[in-house]
Amino acid sequence: MTKNQSILNWVEEMSILTKPADVVWIDGSDEQIADLRQKAVDSGIIKPLCQDKLPGCAVHRTAVHDAARSEQKTFICSPNEKDVGPTNNWCAPDEMYDTLHKLFDGVMRGRTMYVIPFSMGPVGSKLSKVGIKITDSIFVVLNTFILARCGKLALDSLGDESNDWVRGMHSTGQLDDENRYIAHFPLDNAVWSINSGSGGNALLTKKCIALRNASYQGKSEGWLAEHMLIIGVERPEKDTVYIAAALPSHCGKTNLAMLVPPEGYAKNGYKVWCVSDDVAWLKQGTDGKLWAINPENGFFGVAPDTNNKTNPNAISTVQKNTIFTNVVHNLDDNSVWWEGLNDDKITNAVDWKGNPWNSDSSEKGAHTNARFTAPASDCPCISPEHDNAEGVPISAFIFGGKRAKTLPLVYQAFDWKHGVFVGSIVGTEVASGLTGSSVSVRRDPMAMLPFCGYNMADYFGHWLKMGDRLGRNAPKVFNVNWFRTNDEGNFVWPGYGENMRVLDWIIERVCGNKGVVETPIGYEPKPEDINIDGLEDAGITLDVIKELLSVDKVLWKEEVNGIKQFYTKFGDRLPEEMKTQLVDLEKRLL
Length: 590
Ligand code: OXD
Ligand code: MN
Fold this sequence. Notes:
This protein is α+β, with helices and mostly antiparallel strands.
């Protein structure tokens, strides 16, 4: 399939190490994937669902102890520990390669070694990267085929001479958690993963390559690899505005990526197009603007709580060509179910652990991290620009977290530097304490904490540099919080499609159309500038908007202490500018 000697040599080297029974190159043809799918069915790895109702869909279960990302087993192996920073696990590259070579030695005996050429991003785009992933898991092959652009076309776009390609090495090994490693070698543009067969640990193109390794490459080459969705908001007789947004896991990112505007907006011709649900690669174009592509080609979404209200586009997407993992398998009609899908009574099913299950069972039927893997092309709101090699021009960045009281519904950073600060303090409230009775803030800067392939302090520095480079073309920066609660602990803002109203204000700001109220934390909307037409039934009045926008100085002083504590981790590596921003915020709160 290729004459590229660097690729042929590496594949040969990996084959000598792992000693597979045979080697199969994935060419990208539908026939080959259909054969592999059949093989996966025959060996029980996937079970086809009712093909009348869910054509091309199948269900899979991981091992019970292998159902989510293993952050403790994830390492960044750069030569110098300080370059990896306090928020990543570090191991010296030689030591890790030594450990891995022992574990990979002969690991594929009796198994097939699959070689998957892939392009992250539209094939041939200047923003895209080509790589080779080796795996002994047919499940990984089937998922990768959906999530990335795979096969000969990737090799052809690389050519026969280039050595600039990503190496991804994976084996399910014995699924032994003790010896599980997800090891990144950013300097070698490589990632090695063993003893996991699930999600972000094993589908290397996703978190490992598109974020951890790419973020390092981005820093070295002057671009950004971000844990961001990308949407295009189409408005009547105006240009579509593209926005990239970073929300930590479980903050409704996939829902925002596929938002359906409420009736009033839809009637007026507003549409939201999804360019990406999870990752954005962004680079300055020759016009000075920041252009973004989605390096992926499909969605690996969290199933629980996805339903016709929270995300009708995702529900529509997963009606065909989808692999469901760790959901409930309903044996009555050979379909799938998960908590938060609907109120159906399930009488005869198998849960994610493989045990008999029904709606009266005391345990959850689907894992909280149950997933769907679905092609982007099946999404009703997929952007016509999804495959555009040039990408889309980004006008705004949105950060967001989950905070009951501190953060207002929306605010805008004063400028780029302040925006970097706003991104750096993103956090989500999580239950803590032995009984889960108290609440603490899990800081997750730019939602990148588990995905940054180098020292986060340097990452803030890189963002600051990008701002210098972009100058007046830098996107405007905003922060949202859909999760303010009232005294009874209920969410106040209706969220989901209604978030369009906040996007609307953001777009008006980007276009320079609306005034602001200056607060100590940033610019806020004038309350009457948030469109609440049609929200009466949801109890949203102007007074409620005022409450949602209120900034409690006492809480913000506590917030400053929390940020100080978080920043201390980075010692003197933290850019001066970040310290200045924090001091300035403290002064504005006096
Ligand atoms: C994901 C995550 O899997 O962010 O997308 O955890
Ligand atoms: Mn994600």
